[in-house]
Amino acid sequence: MIDGTFDAQRRAFQANPNPPASERRANLGMVCDVLREHADEIARAISSDFGHRSHHETRLLEIVPTLEEAKHARKQVARWMQSERVRTGLWFQPARSRIVKQPLGVVGIVAPWNYPLYLSIGPLIAALAAGNRAIVKMSELSANTGALLAALFGQRMSTDLVAIVNGDADVARALCAKPFDHLLFTGSTTVGRSVMQAASANLTPVTLELGGKSPAIIAPGYSVENAARRVMLGKCLNAGQTCVAPDYVLLPRAKLAAFRDAAIRIVSEFYPSGTAGDDYTSIVSDHHMQRLLGWLREAAAGGARVDRIGTDDMRARKLAPTLLSNVTLDMHVMQEEIFGPLLPLVPYDSLDEALQLVASRPRPLAMYYFDDDASRVDGVLATILAGGVTVNDTLFHVAQDALPFGGVGASGMGSYHGIHGFNTFTKQKGVFFQSRFNAGPLLSPPFGGRIERLLRLMLR
Q1: Which CATH superfamily is domain 2-210+413-429 in?
Q2: pLDDT by residue (tens digit) across 197-224?
């Protein structure tokens, strides 16, 4: 199936290699229509894949941001497509230079299970705005969502424009082995390495949106109450199954107990019915539930203080938010991306100590820094390298269409969202227009005194 679909998209692109703005806007309009008209069906499918997820949470975290991204691209795409006149070197004037924007061709998108709509259709929006055709591979853990999206998009778009495919890891491997013009993968760092290796056989350029341990750093003097409220919201949404969720908290040693008390109270306010409430999301699979429980047991056996905020519901795969204090850096919860509602609290004695810890680890996909001192904020932003940053809150940098979203180092490469996604899936082709009267004859052999005099003038 993938071979036939890929070949059909390649032929369709060759027949229409640079769709006009009107056609791209129409395609993006169909994406908007799917999201508006089928929001309830999409929310039900995603909840079914998780075991349970609040429909409000799905609308808030997936449907609305995806729709906003499509509307933004639809509004801006004609401007993004315009060629740009750029400077021509002094010795080549009066010639002209321009950057011409062209679609790459056929794009592959491999989506994860944790935000199955936002992380599949978001990249698709960028690919369509750039004039490409795309094959989107959904995760096998989001099979219901994948089947629904395949049906909905199949009703509106031909598969030689957009094809949404489902299947297991073998399907994903087969997809990544195709000679795409660009491949975007969202998932774990381990799988990302395999994707990059497969793409390299065809010299396919890749955008890798991976993960890692995204720290939340609370500076001395910042309100513990405010920090706890924003960190716990970022941690508890989707039960922590978010690639940019705060993964651990670095905070002044004297504030640890106050933060812990505030966090317990705040989470109880967020979820007054605990894990039994409709607003709290299930862990996606038994495998991931057992992984998290195993890490929790390991931390407790290693001497960590464990504060459970509620009780687990094993039948519904709902794991209560949990604070971990007195952790050691060799525990799994401090070595691996947690991807669940466990939150280590790591005290520091000086802010420099906290920053050195972050700098010594693989570069994170996100960082959250809480501080009222503007000059200190600027210093931290200039010092710590991360994929993206939210200051005095969590998660919200991801929802900004004008900001690039992407990792660095072990957390990924490349970026998308808004014009940054358009540029990822576009060839920016440099074009030089020679003028009728030009210096070409002066630069031609045979070389001699004339060239010597010209070079002396150029090198002055």
Answers
A1: Aldehyde Dehydrogenase; Chain A, domain 1 (3.40.605.10)
A2: 999 999 999 999 998 999 999 999 999 9
